[in-house]
Each structure stands twice: as structure tokens, then as C-alpha cells.
Design brief:
This protein is α+β, with helices and mostly antiparallel strands. The chain has one domain: Nucleoside Triphosphate Pyrophosphohydrolase. Helices cover about 25% and strands about 35% of the residues. It contains 4 helices and 9 strands, in the order ββαββββαβββαα. Strands 6-3-8-7 form a 4-stranded mixed sheet, sandwiched between helices. The protein has a 3-stranded antiparallel sheet with strand order 5-4-9. It is globular, with a radius of gyration of 16 Å. The termini are far apart. It holds the Pfam family NUDIX. InterPro entries: NUDIX_hydrolase-like_dom_sf, NUDIX_hydrolase_CS, NUDIX_hydrolase_dom. Keywords: Hydrolase.
Length: about 180
């Protein structure tokens, strides 16, 4: 069954309406999503390689975990659910530090217009990489990369076509926030 998402107005206020995810993307309606950035105490960031069958940015490296907030769900509930689904890790709400809410608008081939309010969180990765279980079809691979290298490649735009093209300002916020916790 297809996910149903809340429809928000361009300022991020819920309209009280919901629709199937495919319709939300086809019509370009704003909706909430979650991003969870995991980092290690040794200064590395967990990245996921998007599955080859993904409608948007297949095969590119992206945020540790990301997903849609389903209708009736809070961003925190969605974050905990998505972490379990995408990497097989159970976490408590106290393990997530709120980074901020970011507005993002991207048009994709095939008529997908993705307009999101991304609730972004940070969390320390407390298990080894091999303890994580990538979700089949969604996540092709996982890797931990030194924060400095990630910052140069993604925030510094040194490797276009390798990472999902989030804005430089967004990547900068993530890098600075992780660095402040090390």
C-alpha cells in the first residue's frame, strides 16, 4: 500500500489534507521528510548509497537515513521508523539531536517535483558498520567517510554526480554541527 503524506503550504503549515506519495510528488505539494545523519566519535559520517531502482538520484551517496513522514506521524516517529527500516538499527528518541528544519525544492525527470520540509537530526553511531543492515532495494551500500573528506567532496562540491545535490548551505550546516560534537 502506498504511503499517504500530509500536504503543507509553502510556508510549512499543514493544510489538513493528505494524498498518496505519488500524487504529492506529481503535483509538487510540500510535505515533511526526515534526514538522520549518523557520525562516529572518531570524526566520520555514515553515508548510504541509494538503490539503483530509486526514482530520484539512484546510485548516488546521500544522508545516512532519509524518508517521508507519513500522515499522522510526527517527524521524530518517522525518524525512528526510518532508521529501523533503512539500516536495521533501533534507537531511542533521546539518541536524536534536532539540527533544524530545511526547505528543499527539486524537479526530477519523469515529472517528480519534490518540495520538502526536511526535519534533520544528528545521532552518534554507537555500533560498528557491519552491525547495520541496509534495506534491500532502498540502500545499495553503507560506508563511513572522514568528515573532512565528506566536507570537501559534498559541501565543497568537489565531486558533482557522486552525492545527492543538496544545497551547499545544507551540507555546511550538517558538517559544522557534526564537527561541533567531536
Amino acid at each position: 500500500m502506498e504511503e499517504h503524506l500530509e500536504i503543507w503550504d509553502p510556508s510549512g503549515v499543514p493544510t489538513g489534507k493528505t494524498a498518496p506519495k505519488s500524487e504529492v510528488h506529481r503535483e509538487g505539494w510540500f510535505h515533511p521528510t526526515v534526514h538522520i545523519w549518523f557520525y562516529t566519535p572518531t570524526g566520520k559520517v555514515l553515508l548510504q548509497k541509494r538503490g539503483p531502482g530509486k526514482e530520484t538520484f539512484p546510485g548516488l551517496w546521500d544522508v545516512s537515513v532519509a524518508g517521508h513522514v507519513q500522515a499522522g506521524e510526527t517527524p521524530m516517529e518517522a525518524a525512528i521508523r526510518e532508521v529501523k527500516e533503512e539500516i536495521g538499527l533501533e534507537i531511542a528518541p533521546t539518541a536524536l539531536a534536532f539540527l533544524g528544519r530545511f526547505k528543499s525544492e527539486q524537479a526530477h525527470p519523469g515529472g517528480i517535483v519534490d518540495r520538502e520540509f526536511q526535519y534533520s537530526y544528528l545521532s552518534q553511531l554507537t555500533v560498528p558498520l557491519d552491525a547495520l543492515v541496509p534495506q534491500a532495494g532502498e540502500v545499495e551500500a553503507l560506508e563511513v567517510k572522514p568528515l573532512i573528506q565528506f566536507a570537501e567532496e559534498a559541501w565543497g562540491l568537489a565531486r558533482p554526480g557522486h552525492y545527492v545535490p543538496h544545497s551547499g548551505a545544507y551540507y555546511g550546516e550538517v558538517v559544522r554541527a557534526i564537527k561541533s560534537r567531536l
